[in-house]
Design a protein that fits this description.
heterodimer; A: alpha/beta; Rossmann fold; B: 364 residues; mainly alpha; 14 helices
């Protein structure tokens, strides 16, 4: 579904991503792990269009209206273009629209809202309202799914950390997403909620057919949820495979304990 | 009776000026209140509106460009249209700047606009300004001309209010608020944030130009001093913040209230402060005169030790600034997001539900 070819990102002198090659397969929940600074979030930012790659390709395969598959290089496209191709991301630190209600936070997301045009919102009120009801129904369904219905009319800034995480996931449900990038959905979330979150992700994967790619430091969550797991270190893919095998791989252990530096020295 | 009539005319002028400031405030509310664009250059768009409409409608004069003698509504309309490409060009360059940088850039651009009007003598008659700008209903008898003018301004405010409120309550308004709250998230929701920021900037600027044009026709005169940042930018900001940014009713209320304070201080200054107090005030006045534009400070003459004072008119401007600052302090201490804070409403779907329910229940 998505293939990175020699993807590289240079921040000044720092090589955050160094010729990375990896593939995310359609329909799977792929885990992306690695020590801090391995370049995981940078890769997400490039796939989601928030950062422009220094070099390399991001090849995205999607099925068009006619069911035919086509592959294009989407590297360097702006974020909203990525969104319209079905690539949706969440943030490591929740980004909620604080002064909007929880329901509104979700209602912002869907595309093709006629009311986003001033002309339509002045002169085609009926059409805007009809779409608005559809969008609201969609948002209410998502809140139901997330068990956030009770805070529907609360301002998002008043939510707890865990609820904000759920809201992040909720945003991905408001569109016809194909590839969902979750950046540490479990960080700072209590174990009970974490299990619920993992269940939700599994359900979205099964019921809606979302392909997931998840950055996570909670290895139990990764182990229970993801197959395959890709291990990054210093901007490159170190190894990949099933969590069982990855866990046994000594290079992975080294990378997490800073073995890479020893090698370099 | 005579005096009562005077009060009546005065309150009409309060309403008209207040209404014109309300137009400016509504424009700024679109930019700052909804979308979070820190435009510190209100005066620039105000000046464009005022000058363009004035030059297009004023009678021919050897001192400035003109002689087009267009009807007032046409002049006002063209002033707004002219503002579109100007605001678009400014926005295109500046809109990516984050809040305080945008403020610095727009503040500078507004000054450039003012200085262009001040120095392009052939077109604008420089510092002496464009006079004989036609005023609507000029031929009518007093007080009907004043009443009609006030009504026209208030009707414009009402129409703007309705149009902007419709926009605010639609997905457009929600999206603007989302952009203000968290831009990366709005981007991640697939919105072309830059385009929408630019749209809000241009629409706000056009509304400001409308305010400027109305001001020119009301006071029948335009000069570069009108576009000085203190009166045409900061006063508008204070009005919006005190009234409640993000709330259209608040914007109008803030404009009316602060204009009332601004205007009334001229009259009450001599009443609330005894003459002998002038000696105490004088040093402050002197200091203020170093910072405030000359227009605000009548010639700072030292009070005559024998006869008492120079006129209190010269102190009033200084007191005004103080009172406006005080008013803002009181409002913000008491109501942290303005007198009428922003209100989140559910969605248009709700209003429709209510009417649909009513429609369902009525036949049965």
């Amino acid at each position: 579904m998505l293939r990175l070819e020699d993807l590289t990102k240079n921040f000044g002198g720092v090589l955050a991503v160094d010729g990375c090659n990896l593939e995310i397969e359609e329909g799977k929940i792929t885990g992306l792990i690695g020590p801090n600074g391995a370049g995981k979030t940078t890769i997400f930012n490039m796939i989601a269009g928030a950062l422009r790659p220094t070099s390399g390709k991001i090849l995205y395969t999607s099925r068009g209206e006619d069911g035919k598959e086509s592959t294009v290089d989407i590297s360097g496209l702006p974020t909203h273009e990525m969104f319209h191709r079905g690539i949706v991301r969440t943030f490591q630190i929740p980004h909620e629209f604080g002064a909007l209600t929880v329901l509104e936070n979700l209602m912002v997301v869907p595309a093709e809202q006629h009311g986003e045009s001033l002309y339509q919102s002045w002169f085609h009120r009926k059409k805007v309202i009809d779409r608005e009801r559809e969008v609201r129904r969609m948002a209410e369904d998502a809140l139901e799914f997330l068990s956030l219905t009770h805070v529907r009319d609360e301002l998002a800034q008043n939510l707890s950390g865990g609820q904000k995480k759920l809201l992040e996931l909720g945003r991905t449900m408001m569109t016809d997403a194909k590839l969902v990038l979750l950046d540490e959905p479990g960080a700072g979330v209590n174990p009970t909620l974490l299990r619920k979150l993992a269940d939700m992700i599994r359900r979205l994967n099964k019921e809606r057919g979302y392909t997931f790619c998840i950055i996570e430091h909670d290895m139990d969550m990764i182990a229970s949820l993801c197959d395959p797991v890709i291990v990054l270190a210093e901007g490159k893919v170190l190894t990949q495979g099933h969590m069982k095998d990855v866990r046994r791989d000594e290079r992975v252990l080294d990378a997490y304990l800073g073995g890479g530096e020893e090698e370099a020295a | 009776m005579e005096q009562l009539y005077g009060y009546f005319l005065y309150s009409l002028s309060l309403l008209t000026f207040g209404g014109i400031y309300a137009i400016l405030c509504l424009g700024l509310n679109i930019q700052w209140g909804f979308t979070g664009l820190f435009n510190a250059g209100v005066a620039g768009f105000f000046a464009i509106g005022a000058y363009v409409s004035a030059i297009l409608t004023a009678p021919e004069s050897p001192r400035h460009l003109g002689g087009y003698d267009l009807p007032i509504p046409v002049g006002v309309f063209i002033a707004m249209v002219v503002c579109v490409p100007v605001a678009w060009a400014i926005g295109r360059v500046c809109i990516r700047l984050r809040s305080d940088y945008l403020a610095i850039a727009t503040l500078g651009i507004a000054e450039i606009i003012r200085l262009v009007f001040k120095n392009e003598l052939w077109a604008t008659n420089g510092a002496r300004g464009v006079s004989f700008v036609p005023k609507p209903f000029e031929a009518w008898d007093s007080p009907w001309d004043q009443i009609a003018m006030a009504l026209v301004v208030l009707v414009i405010v009402a129409l703007l209010y309705i149009a902007i409120e419709l926009a605010r309550t639609s997905p457009w308004g929600r999206l603007m608020a989302a952009i203000r709250e968290d831009e990366p998230a709005a981007l991640a929701a697939g919105k072309n944030v830059e385009r929408f920021r630019l749209e809000a900037f241009v629409i706000g600027a056009v509304v400001m130009a409308l305010g400027g044009a109305m001001m020119a026709h009301y006071i029948k005169f335009v000069d570069p001093k009108m576009a000085e940042p203190l009166k045409a930018t900061f006063l508008v900001w204070v009005m919006l913040i005190a009234g409640g940014s993000g709330n259209n009713k608040g914007a109008i209320l803030g404009a009316m209230l602060l204009w009332f304070i601004w205007s009334i201080t001229e009259t009450i200054a001599p009443i609330i402060i005894p003459d002998s107090f002038a000696h105490v005030v004088y040093p402050f006045h002197l200091v203020a005169s170093w910072f405030l534009p000359e227009a605000w400070m009548a010639t700072p003459i030292a009070p005559d030790p024998v006869t008492g004072l120079d006129s209190w008119d010269s102190k009033a401007p200084f007191l005004r600034v103080f009172l406006i600052g005080l008013a803002l302090q009181i409002v913000l201490q008491k109501f942290s997001s303005g007198i009428l804070p922003e209100q989140r409403l559910q969605s248009l779907a709700d209003t429709d539900d209510a009417s649909a329910r009513a429609a369902r229940s009525s036949p049965s």
